[in-house]
Amino acid sequence: MGKIVKKKSVYNPGGDLPSTISEAAVQYDTLKVILGGNKSVPKAISSDMDLINLSRHGVRKSSLKSLAGYLGISMEKMSSLVHSSHRNIQRKDEDELLDTLKTGKVLELAAFIKRGIDVIGTEDAFREWVHSPIIALGNRRPIDFLDTTFGIQMALKVLGRLEQGVFS
């Protein structure tokens, strides 16, 4: 699991990149770290178009291990989040590409993790939060909702409320 370093870019009139471009580059770099770095995603990710191409091409199985580490879950639980049997995932080589549907789910989870770490503050605090009962989720844990797109959206809404200072 890579260490995510939060970088705030400030407008620098004499700098190389405008603030918004710098921030976007950091966001894509962070996603790549969450997905397992260069071993799992050998090509650069610098735009949404790169994410679309990656989702069509596939991410490596090793990305699942990286995500499981960030979420603090077993590979068996990770397999259920991407709607696959644990045995099916075990049979794959580390460098084997996941199919388009699983890759889409992996990218969605990676974006959720990135957002969660940004809002909560640290990887450890995010891991604790994702395993804690949340009132806004009916006293259920966010991890229990990450197997569906709508569940991820609900958890993202809770993160948005937290970011705005609304008790959830």
Brief descriptors of the model:
single chain, 168 residues, mainly alpha, 8 helices
Descriptive notes:
This protein has 8 helices and no strands. It has 168 residues and is mostly helical. It has one domain (19-163). α3 packs across α4, α3 runs parallel beside α6 (100-120) and α6 runs parallel beside α8 (149-163). Mean pLDDT is 85; it is low at 7-22.
Quick overview:
Helix content is 55%, strand content 0%.
Spans of 5+ residues with little confidence (pLDDT < 50)?
7-22
What is the overall silhouette? globular
Q: What proportion of the residues is helical, as a percent range? A: 55-70%
**Quaternary assembly:** single chain
| Main sheet properties | none
Beta percentage is under 5%
Number of helices: 8
Describe the secondary-structure layout.
Blueprint: H1 19-34, H2 48-57, H3 62-71, H4 75-81, H5 86-91, H6 100-120, H7 123-130, H8 149-163
Helix pairs in contact: 1-6, 2-6, 3-4, 3-6, 6-7, 6-8
